[in-house]
C-alpha cells in the first residue's frame, strides 16, 4: 500500500496564527476590562450611568414671610412657564402637529395675552431653530417674560389651541397684599443660572437681606433607564428631598399696616406730595408694627414713578424740624432747668453775628416757656440751651441715640449728623435745623418719652423658623438701649406734648382724636437745596408729626412726614393729620386699648394656677368677674394665659389649659388677640379672616374636635365691632401687680 505523503499547509498555519492571536488579544482585553472596569482610562460604570442614569429636580419652596400673627405677606405660589416646541421631528402626524407651525400667528396670540412678550421678538425666537453649533433645537423658552404665568392666562392661551405651545408648572413669588410695606419687604425674581437652572433671588428689602435664609435647597430623584428612556425593571430610585427655605415672622401687624397704606394712598392722591414716610411702633418693646413710604410700588409689577429704591425710614436722613424740640424739652426738664412759667422775649435771638427768628418772624412778645413750646417757638429753644448748657445738651442727644445707628435689623442704616462744632449749630439743632436724623432714630428716641425713660431698640424681625421642623432658628427679643431721662421727666414731657393739642396756643390741634388723648410735636422743616440754601414757601416744607397715645400709658408711637404737599390754603399739618389720625385711632381700637373717657374700673389679680383644679378655678375666676376658658377635658391646669402675677380688668379672659380633647367654645365677640391665644394653646387648624371681633365660626360651639379639618372664623371690622362698655369687653388691659 502506498503511503500518503504529508504536506505542510502554510495558508492554514498562517490563518491559525492570525485568528489565534486575535482571539488571544480579545480574550486579554475582555479580562482586563472585567478586572479594571475601565476603557481608555474611563470607567464603564460611569459612562453607563451618564447614558442611562437620569435625574429630575425636586424644586424647593422659598420661605414665607408672615406678619406677627402668622398672616402671609410673601409666599411661593403655583404658576406656569411657557415652552414652544420648534423641532419638526416632534410631529408624527401632520394632521396633528406638535411643533410650532405658524410663528407669526403664534407670536401674535402670545403677545395678546402676555404684554411683556413683544411680537417681533417672539417671531424671531420661534424662527431661530438651530443652536450656535448648528444642531437643531427641540424647544425654546422666553426668559422672564414666559415665566410666572397665572392659571387664568394659561387657560386662555390653551383655548387658542396653538400647535407646539406647552406649559410647565412652576413656582412664582406672590405678594397677596399688593402695596404693603413694599420698601421693607422688597421683592424676589426668577434668575437664569449659567448651568441652565433657574433660582428665585431676592432683589430688594427683606427678600434681599435675608435671601440666604429664605432660599431653600432643591432635592432630586435619580433613576436608571434603558436606551429608549424607559425605567429599567427593579432599578432603584434614590430620592434626596428638597429643603424649603426658612420662614420669617415680622413684628408688623397686618391690620395696622393696612390702615397705614390706605391713609397714605388717600393723602398722596389728594395732595400729590414729593414724598411721604410713616412708622408705627410699640414703645414697650420697640417692635415696628407698620412702615411705609410714598412713592412706592407693587411688588407684583414693580412699576413706579419718581421713586427712590431705598427704605427712607432707615436709609435717608432729614432735618427733623420742630419734632426735635421734644428732646430739647426733655433735656431741660431732666437737668432741672425747665421753668414753665418763667418769661422770655420771643421773636428773635442773636448769637455772635447770626440771628434766628420764630416761624412768624416777629414772635408774641414776652411769654412763658410753656407757651413758647406750645407755639413751637425757636427762640424758646435757643434760650433753653443757655440754661441747659451746650455740652450737656449734646450729651443728651447722644443718650437719645442721635448720630448713631439704632441697630435695627435692617441693612444700610444711616447715622445722621449732629452739628455741634459752632455755637450757631448747637442753637439751630435745638429746633431741628442743620443737624440730620433718620425717622427710625426719632422713633427710638420717642420710646424713652413714652416708656417712662426706657429707650427701646426698634426691630422688624420677630423670629426665623425652620419651615420643615418648626424649630426657631433666630428669636429677636426687645432690647433696652438705656435710660436717657428719668421716669418723672418722661411723664412731664408727655403732659406738655399733650398740651400742644389742647392749649389755645397749641400748633397740633389737627391731631386731636375723639376717643384718645394724644401727645406729640409737629414739625415744619426747611428743605436744604444743593447750594446750601433752603427752600421757602407753603408748598416747600417737610411737614411732620411725632406723637403717641394714650398719654397716660402710651401703647403706640407714630411718626409721619409729608414733603412738599400741594396745599389748598391749608396748614401743612392737615395732610399729616390725615395719615396720623385714622391710623392711630383705628390701630388703638384694633388693639382693644380702652378710650380715655371710660370710667375707672376695678381690676382683679390672678396668679400661677399650674397644678390646680380647672373646675374649681372656673367658679373662683367667674366670681371675680373674669371669663375663664378651659382648654381640654378639665382636671389639673398644665398651662395658662396670662401667666405670672397680673391684674386684669373685669371681663378679661383667662385661659386654663388641661389634658384631653378640645371642646370648641362660642367665639362670638372674641378679639383677634384672644382667638390667636386659643389657637396657639390648642394647636388647632384655624383660618381667620377679617379684623376686630368674631362674627361667625364654621364649627358650632360645643363640638369636640377630633380631626385636623380647619375651622374658619370671620371677624368684623374694628369700627363695627368696637365695644365701649368695659364690662362687656372681650379683653382687658393687663398690668403688673404692685409689690406694695
From TrEMBL:
Pathway(s) of this molecule: Cell wall biogenesis; peptidoglycan biosynthesis
List residues traversing the bilayer: 12-31
Chain ranges of the PASTA domain: 600-660
One GO molecular function term?
penicillin binding
UniProt entry tagged with the keyword Nucleotide-binding: no
Which catalysed reactions does the entry list for this protein?
A: Preferential cleavage: (Ac)2-L-Lys-D-Ala-|-D-Ala. Also transpeptidation of peptidyl-alanyl moieties that are N-acyl substituents of D-alanine
Q: Where in the cell is it found?
A: Membrane
Q: Which UniProt keywords apply?
A: Membrane, Transmembrane, Transmembrane helix
Give the domain of life: Bacteria
Q: What is its EC number?
A: 3.4.16.4
Pfam families, per this entry? PASTA (PF03793), PBP_dimer (PF03717), Transpeptidase (PF00905)
List, alphabetically, the CDD domains matched.
Answer: PASTA_Pbp2x-like_1, PASTA_Pbp2x-like_2
Q: Name one GO biological process term.
A: cell wall organization
Q: Which GO terms describe its cellular component?
A: plasma membrane
Q: Which PANTHER family match?
A: PENICILLIN-BINDING PROTEIN 2B, PEPTIDOGLYCAN D,D-TRANSPEPTIDASE
What family does the database annotate? Belongs to the transpeptidase family.
Q: What is this protein called?
A: serine-type D-Ala-D-Ala carboxypeptidase
Amino acid at each position: 500500500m502506498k503511503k500518503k505523503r504529508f504536506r505542510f499547509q502554510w495558508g492554514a498555519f498562517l490563518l491559525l496564527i492570525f485568528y489565534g492571536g486575535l482571539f488571544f488579544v480579545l480574550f486579554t482585553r475582555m479580562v482586563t476590562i472585567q478586572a479594571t472596569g475601565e476603557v481608555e482610562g474611563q470607567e464603564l460604570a460611569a459612562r453607563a450611568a451618564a447614558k442611562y442614569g437620569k435625574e429630575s429636580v425636586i424644586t424647593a419652596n422659598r420661605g414665607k414671610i408672615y406678619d406677627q400673627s402668622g398672616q402671609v405677606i410673601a409666599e411661593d405660589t403655583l404658576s406656569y412657564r411657557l415652552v414652544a416646541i420648534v423641532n419638526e421631528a416632534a410631529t408624527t402626524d401632520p394632521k396633528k402637529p406638535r411643533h410650532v407651525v405658524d410663528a407669526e400667528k403664534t407670536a401674535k396670540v402670545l403677545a395678546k395675552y402676555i404684554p411683556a412678550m413683544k411680537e417681533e421678538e417672539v417671531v424671531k425666537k420661534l424662527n431661530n431653530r438651530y443652536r450656535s453649533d448648528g444642531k437643531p433645537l427641540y424647544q425654546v423658552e422666553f426668559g422672564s417674560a414666559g415665566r410666572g404665568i397665572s392659571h387664568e392666562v394659561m387657560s386662555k392661551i390653551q383655548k387658542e389651541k396653538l400647535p407646539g405651545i406647552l406649559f410647565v408648572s412652576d413656582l412664582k413669588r406672590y405678594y397677596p397684599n399688593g402695596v404693603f410695606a413694599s420698601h421693607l419687604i422688597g421683592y424676589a425674581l426668577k434668575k437664569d443660572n449659567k448651568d441652565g437652572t433657574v433660582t428665585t433671588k431676592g432683589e430688594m428689602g427683606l427678600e434681599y437681606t435675608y435671601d440666604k435664609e429664605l432660599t431653600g435647597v432643591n432635592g432630586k430623584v435619580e433613576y436608571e433607564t434603558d436606551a429608549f428612556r424607559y425605567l429599567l425593571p427593579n432599578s432603584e430610585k434614590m430620592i434626596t428631598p428638597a429643603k424649603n427655605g426658612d420662614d420669617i415672622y415680622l413684628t408688623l401687624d397686618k391690620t395696622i399696616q393696612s390702615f397705614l397704606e390706605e391713609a397714605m394712598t388717600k393723602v398722596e392722591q389728594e395732595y400729590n406730595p414729593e414724598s411721604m414716610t410713616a412708622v408705627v411702633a410699640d414703645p414697650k418693646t420697640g417692635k415696628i408694627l407698620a412702615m411705609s413710604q410714598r412713592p412706592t410700588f407693587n411688588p407684583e409689577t414693580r412699576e413706579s414713578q419718581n421713586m427712590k429704591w431705598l427704605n427712607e425710614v432707615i436709609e435717608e436722613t432729614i432735618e427733623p424740624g420742630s419734632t426735635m424740640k421734644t428732646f430739647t424739652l426733655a433735656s431741660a426738664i431732666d437737668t432741672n432747668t425747665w421753668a414753665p412759667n418763667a418769661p422770655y422775649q420771643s421773636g428773635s435771638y442773636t448769637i455772635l453775628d447770626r440771628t434766628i427768628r420764630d416761624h412768624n418772624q416777629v414772635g408774641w412778645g414776652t411769654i412763658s416757656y410753656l407757651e413758647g413750646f406750645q407755639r413751637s417757638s425757636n427762640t424758646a429753644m435757643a434760650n433753653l440751651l443757655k440754661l441747659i448748657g451746650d455740652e450737656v445738651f449734646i450729651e443728651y442727644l447722644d443718650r437719645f441715640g442721635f448720630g448713631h445707628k439704632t441697630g435695627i435689623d435692617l441693612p444700610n442704616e444711616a447715622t445722621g449728623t449732629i452739628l455741634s462744632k459752632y455755637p450757631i449749630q448747637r442753637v439751630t439743632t435745638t429746633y431741628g435745623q442743620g443737624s440730620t436724623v433718620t425717622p427710625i432714630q426719632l422713633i427710638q428716641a420717642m420710646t424713652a418719652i413714652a416708656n417712662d425713660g426706657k429707650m427701646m431698640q426698634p426691630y422688624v424681625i420677630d423670629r426665623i423658623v425652620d419651615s420643615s421642623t418648626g424649630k426657631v432658628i433666630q428669636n429677636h427679643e426687645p432690647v433696652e438701649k438705656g435710660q436717657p431721662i428719668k421716669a418723672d421727666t418722661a411723664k412731664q414731657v408727655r403732659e406738655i406734648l399733650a398740651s400742644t393739642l389742647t392749649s389755645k396756643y397749641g400748633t397740633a390741634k389737627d391731631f386731636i382724636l375723639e376717643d384718645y388723648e394724644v401727645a406729640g410735636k409737629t414739625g415744619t422743616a426747611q428743605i436744604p437745596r444743593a447750594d446750601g440754601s433752603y427752600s421757602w414757601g407753603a408748598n416747600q416744607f417737610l411737614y411732620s408729626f411725632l406723637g403717641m397715645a394714650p398719654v397716660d400709658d402710651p401703647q403706640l408711637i407714630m411718626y409721619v412726614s409729608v414733603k412738599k404737599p400741594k396745599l389748598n390754603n391749608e396748614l401743612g399739618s392737615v395732610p399729616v393729620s390725615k395719615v396720623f389720625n385714622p391710623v392711630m385711632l383705628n390701630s388703638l381700637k384694633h388693639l382693644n386699648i380702652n378710650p380715655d373717657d371710660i370710667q375707672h374700673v376695678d381690676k382683679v389679680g390672678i396668679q400661677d394656677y399650674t397644678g390646680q383644679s380647672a373646675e374649681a378655678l372656673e367658679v373662683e375666676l367667674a366670681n371675680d368677674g373674669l371669663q375663664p376658658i378651659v382648654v381640654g377635658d378639665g382636671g389639673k391646669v398644665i398651662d395658662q394665659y396670662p401667666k405670672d402675677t397680673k391684674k386684669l380688668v373685669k371681663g378679661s379672659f383667662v385661659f386654663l389649659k388641661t389634658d384631653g380633647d378640645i371642646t370648641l367654645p362660642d367665639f362670638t365677640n372674641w378679639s383677634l388677640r384672644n382667638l390667636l391665644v386659643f389657637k396657639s394653646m390648642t394647636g388647632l387648624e384655624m383660618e381667620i379672616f377679617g379684623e376686630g371681633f368674631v362674627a361667625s365660626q364654621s364649627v358650632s360651639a360645643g363640638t369636640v374636635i377630633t380631626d385636623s379639618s380647619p375651622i374658619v372664623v370671620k371677624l368684623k371690622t374694628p369700627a363695627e365691632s368696637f365695644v365701649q362698655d368695659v364690662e362687656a369687653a372681650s379683653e382687658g388691659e393687663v398690668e403688673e401687680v404692685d409689690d406694695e
